[in-house]
Structure formats: C-alpha cells, structure tokens
C-alpha cells in the first residue's frame, strides 16, 4: 500500500471555522470556510468569501466616528462626509487591516486569515472525539474550496490521515483536473446545481454553468453526489426549472439525492457591512418556507431522484 505524502506547510486563506454542524455531511461536523469563489451569486450568504484576500466588515452600531480608519487607509477606501456619514468603497479595499488595527470600538472586523495545513489540523483535533462518536468529520466549504486546490488537497489528505470523514461543498466551477485529483480524499461531495440555462445562470451568478455541468458529470463518474439546489424566487422558482435539474441529476446515475434549500435573507446585513449591494432587493424576493417546496419535492421524485428539503436529515 503506497504512503500518501502530505505537505503540512502549504498555506491557505480561511475566514471561519464552524463547529457542531448537522447539515453539511454525515454526523456532527466542523466546517472550514475557505476564501475565494468564481461565482458572485445574488443571494450569497457569505459575501465575505468571494474575494481571496481578507476583507473588512463594518458594524455601524459600534462606530464612534473617530475617523482613525480614514486616516490610516492608504487606498482611500474609507471616507467621512461632512454630515458625518461614513462611506466605504469596497472595490478600493485591499484588506491590509490597518483600519481594523486602529479601531478601539470593535466596529471593524477582518474576515480572512492565512494558515497552514498543520496549524489547521491542530485546531480540528479539538473535535476528534465528536467525530468519532457521531460518525462526523470535517467539511471544507467556502467560497469554493477548489479555488485553493493545493491547500484543499493537502487538507483533505491530512484529515484522512487522522481517520476523519471528509466532505466538500462546491460550486464545481474549477479546473476539472484539479477537482479530480482531490476526489480520492473526499467521502461526501455536496455540489450546487443552480440552473440548467447557461445565460440565466450567468445573469444571476456572473458565470456560465457549462463547466459546472461538465464537472458534475466527471465527478459522478467516480463518486456519489448530493446535488444541492438553492431555490431562489424569480431565478429557478418554477416547476419547469426544478424539473430540468432533476432530469439532469437522474441522467448522472450516481446522485444520492437532491437537496432543495429554501432562499433566506440571513446574509443581507453582511452586504451592508461590506459596502456591497444586495442584488436580491431588486427582485422584492421573500423567504420560502419548507412547505412551499413540497410541490418541488414531488417533481424531483417523479423524475426518479430522491429529494430532501431544508434541514431534513
């Protein structure tokens, strides 16, 4: 049996570690969120993940308008107007952290840190007894983990060396070769399929779905998939659009089930804190209850694919 070589010094950029999750793979899990995503979905609940570099989140309720952040920002991303209003220009921010460092009131929070695989494994070991007793493990999410393929690959290998179950949450929009090289170290693949129409997918996410659908076929050829569908009003919130995804999933022949995820607005405040537009406001969209998705479950199952909704286990 060949020995797997692991480079524990490979560094990556993460923005959160969430413990005791029940909905991101089997058992009780710890989720590691990596930065960087090729998509910019209108409804993204983690907009702080989209850029690879760190970003600064601003809590206006804590701001005392001391203007120190404005003074130290070399990129002029922060400006105070004559009426005292603080303006933040997200596109100018480089994530240096100078502003957060001088804020005495904790109104500014950095999202993003560099860490190597060895350091991260030491943190994850805190939950190893939970993994063992619950049949859980580590889920790598984002952003999209495959945007940091070298780091994600070594992290998955290191997790498997510990005997932990591994899972990935991915958009599937990355180089096929990089994805396929990492799959042997991943036990559960949670793949987002948002829409079957390439142009509508581009309009609402910033990219076409062609590579995603191709990679779904490649991944399904070697590993079972869970396909997750965020059900978004005025994007894919129709019987025909859900049916088309179910038909595609059935043809893959290696899909465990489709997981329908109702739209929610939990990430909206993050956009305000980042100085970004929350585009879903253009649609006057409303959150969907699990009951509203029952008709879609029937559609999916009529196409021969098992279906779950929301927090169902």
Automatic annotation (TrEMBL):
Residues 23-306 form the Radical SAM core domain. Gene3D superfamilies: 3.30.70.20, pyruvate-formate lyase- activating enzyme (3.80.30.10). It catalyses: glycyl-[protein] + reduced [flavodoxin] + S-adenosyl-L-methionine = glycin-2-yl radical-[protein] + semiquinone [flavodoxin] + 5'-deoxyadenosine + L-methionine + H(+). The keyword Ribosomal protein does not apply. One of its GO terms (molecular function) is oxidoreductase activity. InterPro entries: 4Fe4S_Fe-S-bd, BssD/PflA/YjjW, Organic_radical-activating, Organic_radical_activase, Radical_activat_CS, rSAM, rSAM_sf. Its cofactor is [4Fe-4S] cluster. Pfam families: Fer4_12 (PF13353). It comes from the Bacteria. Keywords: 4Fe-4S, Iron, Iron-sulfur, Metal-binding, Oxidoreductase, S-adenosyl-L-methionine. Residues 54-83, 84-113 form the 4Fe-4S ferredoxin-type domain. The keyword 4Fe-4S applies. Its EC number is 1.97.1.-. Belongs to the organic radical-activating enzymes family. This is Glycyl-radical enzyme activating protein family protein.
């Amino acid at each position: 049996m060949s020995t797997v070589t692991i480079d524990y010094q490979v560094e990556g950029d993460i923005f959160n570690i969430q413990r005791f999750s029940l909905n991101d793979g089997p058992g009780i899990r710890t989720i590691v969120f990596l930065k960087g995503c090729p998509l910019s979905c209108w409804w993204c609940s983690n907009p702080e993940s989209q850029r690879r570099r760190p970003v600064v989140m601003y809590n206006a309720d804590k701001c005392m308008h001391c203007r120190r952040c404005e003074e130290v920002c070399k990129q002029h991303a922060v400006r105070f107007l004559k009426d005292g209003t603080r303006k933040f220009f997200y596109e100018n921010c480089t994530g240096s952290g100078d502003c957060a460092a001088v804020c005495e009131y904790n109104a500014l929070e950095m999202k993003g840190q560099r860490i190597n695989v060895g350091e991260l494994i030491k943190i994850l070991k805190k939950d190893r007894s939970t993994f063992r007793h619950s049949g859980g493990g580590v889920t790598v999410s984002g952003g999209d983990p495959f945007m940091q393929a070298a780091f994600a690959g070594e992290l998955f290998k290191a997790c498997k060396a510990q005997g932990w179950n591994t899972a990935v949450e991915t958009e599937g929009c990355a180089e096929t070769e990089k994805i396929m090289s990492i799959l042997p170290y991943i036990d559960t693949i949670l793949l987002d399929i948002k829409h079957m129409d390439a142009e509508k997918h581009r309009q609402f996410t910033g990219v076409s779905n062609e590579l995603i659908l191709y990679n779904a076929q490649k991944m399904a050829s070697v590993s079972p998939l869970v396909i997750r569908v965020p059900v978004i009003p005025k994007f894919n919130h129709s019987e025909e659009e859900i049916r088309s995804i179910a038909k595609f999933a059935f043809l893959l022949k290696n899909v465990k089930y489709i997981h329908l995820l109702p739209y929610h607005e939990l990430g909206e405040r993050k956009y305000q804190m980042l100085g970004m537009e929350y585009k879903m406001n253009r649609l006057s969209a409303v959150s969907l209850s699990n009951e509203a998705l029952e008709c879609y479950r029937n559609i999916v199952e009529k196409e021969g694919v098992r279906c779950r909704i929301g927090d169902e286990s």
